[in-house]
Write a structure and sequence with these properties.
The protein is of the alpha/beta class. The protein folds into 2 domains: 136 residues, no CATH class; 69 residues, no CATH class. 27% of the residues lie in helices and 25% in strands. A 3-stranded mixed sheet has the order 3-4-10, with helices on one face. It has a 3-stranded parallel sheet with strand order 5-11-13. A 3-stranded mixed sheet has the order 6-9-12, with helices on one face. A hairpin with a 2-residue loop joins β14 and β15. The chain starts with 16 loop residues before the first strand and ends with a helix. The N terminus and C terminus are likely disordered.
């Protein structure tokens, strides 16, 4: 297993997971500090970048003197949002670090939003020619932020006043137009409302208007 040399000839990364005792269990990737390579271990076909690469890299940094190497991964996002959501996380391979999958024909799926700071591919070719498919399974990057606004009774009254006093027809405000309509309706003789205007339903103008008003209220409450 050639990757063992990057863990300095011991089996810390292949023993049971026990970080307090500096053993981290079987890792899916191996970090080659001198060559700035994240090597996918033989036989692995699925990687969750957050867990299998980023978290393991942070553990690797605390082992021996690995912190002397340039930073491999930077991250943005992850901030909490309302409704128990978080802002989508994006990872960047930095300072020339790249990934290389194992030698052999296979298909590898990497889950996570991963890029390089330079903008080139995150994977470099294997040492020999193989038939390899690498799938990058990305997730939602950004959740919409909805501002929270608290309105008191004074604010609500100001909004209502602004709406009714807004001019919607020349120099006439919405309130003035409504008052004019009410006044016009009040001047209509009562016997007009008793006229049958819908012979099929035997409805008077009064009944028709009431039905329209009821239907409008139903729509408004939905």
């Amino acid at each position: 297993m050639p990757q063992l040399i990057y863990n300095y000839g011991d089996w810390d990364f292949w023993e049971l997971y026990n970080p307090p005792n500096t053993t981290y269990g079987r890792q899916k990737v191996t970090f080659d500090g001198p060559n700035k390579l994240i090597l996918v271990n033989a036989g692995e076909t699925e990687l969750d970048f957050r867990t299998d690469v980023y978290s393991n890299w942070k553990e690797w940094l605390t082992t021996r003197d690995n912190a002397k190497y340039d930073e491999a991964v930077t991250v943005i996002g992850g901030d909490p949002l309302p409704g128990q959501r978080v802002l989508g996380t994006t990872f960047f391979l930095d300072n020339g670090w790249r990934m290389r999958t194992w030698e052999g024909n296979h298909e590898l799926t990497v889950t996570g939003n991963v890029f390089t700071t330079e903008g080139d591919p995150i994977f470099v070719p294997t040492l020999e020619s193989w038939t390899i498919t690498i799938n990058l399974n990305t997730s939602t990057l950004v959740e919409a932020l909805v501002p929270e606004t608290n309105l008191n009774s004074t604010d609500i009254a100001a909004v209502v006043s602004s709406v009714w006093n807004n001019n919607i027809q020349g120099q006439n405000s919405a309130l003035a137009i409504l008052n004019s309509i009410v006044a016009d309706i009040g001047s209509i003789p009562d016997n007009v409302w008793d006229e049958i205007i819908d012979a099929t339903k035997n409805q008077t103008a009064r009944e028709k208007l009431r039905r329209i008003a009821t239907k409008t209220q139903d729509i408004a409450l939905r």
